[in-house]
Amino acid sequence: MSSVILDDIQLLRESKSYIDSLYAILTAAGRFQGPKYMLSGLTGMAFKLSVHERLLAMSVTAYGQWIEVHKPAVKNLGLLSVADAGRTRHPTFRWYQQEAVIAVKQSLDLGLGAIYWIPEFGVIHGYDDADQVFYVQDGRHAESQVVLYDNFGLNFTPFWYYEIFGDDVEITHEEMVLESLRIAIDDWHTPYRTFPDTSIASGKLAYTYLREGLQGGTYDEGGARYIFDAYAVSRTEIRDYLIDVEGCWPELLEARGCYEELSRMIPDMTGCIQMKQGTEQIDSDRVGELVHLLGVAEALEDQAIHYFQAISSRYPDLRRSTPPRWGAHSPR
Q: In which domain of life is the source organism classified (predicted)?
């Protein structure tokens, strides 16, 4: 029987829950140096915007198939990651669960925590074989949650997910920044990341869903507030990220200007949310003002994306221009 507790891991909820978790794990292990907004920017996660048509709180983490989204994000840091996910209703879940328990324990033995869907994303920072439990931080409570090995992956959603990390390779700063811009471009021009489900929009179309949801009046109040909280944080992260990397290309100074102007509008947006009857609610008398501000913000982001495209067009993009091996040839 063995046990491990990684006391250096301290999860703080400040950004997207995935970035909060990744940052806690990597900084505790000495694998990332710098502020959290740099991690959010370099991985491209700051640029992700997704909105459910009814403005449900799940919008914030509904930015695509998680493995397909997170793999490129972590890969851009030069970091190896191993992730698995699925639906707990699948008959093979118990077998995947057993393998996941083994993999997470091995990672903890090596001094690296694991990202885990609670929901939202949190960090497994310890285990105890005697009690057959994992210790999980959610970033909202001082005390860790306890998850039995037999309950790994089970939660009130139909999904399970975990991710662990291995060695890394060196990637130049300029290469990481360039790829983060390309991730931003892809996200902006991809309207549906959960297709064929079209109830959730991404990128540029997410602004339309957000405005139409507010104007429709039947949106989820708590979800709307949560979306705006996440929106305010992510757009501020992008601004700060571009300030730090703007020396790479002149166009980034122009893009930074777009996000600085957008950031100056955020207090006006959040000012449309007021305390009523003990809860924060969007002021119905200011919905029109909020919708207008979102239209201006969309135009600013669209202009910033044009600057990103100008930079990207000057360099070959083998990752996106090279056909997959079996997409170009029949297997023999």
A: Bacteria
pLDDT of residue 331: 43
- Neighbour tally for 129: CB within 10 Å: 12
Closest CA to 308 of 19, 47, 78, 70: 47
Q: What is the mean pLDDT of residues 225-232?
A: 96
**Alpha-carbon separation of residue 227 from 8, 45, 61 (angstroms):** 30, 15, 10
What residue ranges in the chain does DSSP mark as E strands? 3-5, 50-52, 79-87, 114-117, 121-128, 133-137, 145-148, 159-168, 200-202, 273-276, 279-282
Q: Which amino acid is at 122?
A: G
Topology (CATH level 3) of domain 3-33+79-168? Cathepsin B; Chain A (3.90.70)
The whole-angstrom separation of Cα 251 and Cα 322 is 26
Residues of the chain with CATH 3.90.70.10: 3-33+79-168
Whole-prediction pTM: 0.94
